[in-house]
Amino acid sequence: MSSKGSQHANVGDVITYQVKGDFHQPLLTVSAEEKTQKSLFQLLQPISDASHTRDRKRSPPDSACMQGTRLEVVEKVNAWANSPISTHTEPHICWMYGYVGSGKSSISQEVCDKSERQGKPVASFFFFRNAADRSKIWRLATTLASQMATVIPGTKPFIRAAVDANPGLLDPGEAAGFSIRARMQRLVYAPFKAAIRRRDRVRALAQGPFLIVLDGLDECDNKDEVQELIDGMLLFFSENPFIPFRVFITSRVEQYIQSRLDVPGVHLENLANHCSDDDIATFLRFMFEDGCRRDPVVKAYVQQHGTWPTPDDRCKLVKHIGGSFIFASEVLKFIMGSNTVGDHQTTPMDRLPLALKMNLGLDDLYAQTLARSEHLPHFTAIISTLALFPNPLSISETAEALGINIYKVVNVLVNLQAVIHVPGTDGIPVTLCHTSLRDFLTTQSRSGRFFVHLSHHVTLFRRWLEGPFIFRPRRCSLDQWYLWYPRISVSGAHSALPDHSNSLTSLGSILIDRYRRSGTVADVEEAISYIAKRSHFYHHLIRLAHSHPSSIFSNLSFI
């Protein structure tokens, strides 16, 4: 079980370390005389629940790839990890980045497990937020060194020699006097390099390079040290370009990590390119089939009514889940789990329609991430534009739509990459991590101060009317500015306003939604006045808007 706190002390030649949590390890004292008697494992005191061999039920994340899912991406990573280093420019590091819930930890786990099944040397560290030492960087080196000594025994004497020469390397505190770069160099890199220089070489490497997997690097609290870790890693590999050693890193996109890893010496994998609905559908099919075998109520229902869920319901679930494996798991737990909703007894068949209305449960993450940039100029306008446009806009298009410089858009978005995919070039669309982020932003009860008001449509609408040189979306017309609401047209608009029918249609979409939500059209009167200057339809439209708002909608027909 993950420890919740720790204490350590260094008094002369005596090093103590005590773990506090749901269980207590006995106080361990290591004197200079005892070092030669203790095993290397006892000296290094690795975090036992930080590797891929941990009990995942007790030490999260409890992540694993369902059979038949993530096959392509796991195979791609393993093929890279197992290939020999043949050129001096070949990357030793692979960084896979993705949104929360996209399955990064599951892939890391499967990469480790598959390497182990194939007899290839692998060590790992799964960072986990708010899990004491697993959310810190200071015991990373000793934990990896301990695992390396197990899978590559030839490194043991060199690790022990490093510890004997520098006892402070065992101190888990940041005040020990050794940087993370020095710890990794002396406990991992140098021992590995020394071991493979021996004449008898290393038998464990006959199957492929040594692989270290660092999962959830963004969940480490020590951001400066994370950058130092990466810098030291890149330097080591640049000085040893042919060393049979690979590092696979997963994390969300955080600027302090991206600034170090988005470099020529690192192979990049965007997990968004590997998240398919097919994998989610396979996961759901397997879990529903298993649930149907175990649940007598479902079994009886299927015998009487046939397949459950129906293919149509499964398609709706896949679309609602939107590529998030965490959300998929929560949906399955809700449907197949407890038989009560509120005070009422329910069956899985009753809960399935309710599951289609569940939100992702990421509101806290969204709020925390957005807060990073809310103090910056144009934050609200930029986020509102990205949330309200039906088709994704690029950075340059967003800047043009708002009449601001591109760098100001980048300045806001660069801190939000945990929930918004910001491409490396200005011409590629910016996309949200999940449709639930748009739902969050447009639901005031959930988003609070980050609420994106639909009146922002008016701002965009006005900019479109101000002149022909002003930005006009290339991938959508103004009548598509509204998002998930039904497309509407205005009866007679084409004859009454031949030059502005699209504009009026767009305004109509705003009016109809605002009327449904608040019963007023007050916040679009300014937009109406802009139309008034350019059309003969002014008196009729403004009179309807002020005196009989509902009659406007009698002129709107759904298509």
From TrEMBL:
Xref: InterPro entries: NPHP3-like_N, P-loop_NTPase
Coiled coil: none
Pfam families recorded: NPHP3_N
All residue ranges annotated as the Nephrocystin 3-like N-terminal domain in the record: 77-252
Signal peptide residue numbers: none
Organism superkingdom: Eukaryota
Keywords in alphabetical order: Repeat
Keyword Repeat: yes
Protein's recorded name: Nephrocystin 3-like N-terminal domain-containing protein
Organism lineage: Eukaryota, Fungi, Dikarya, Basidiomycota, Agaricomycotina
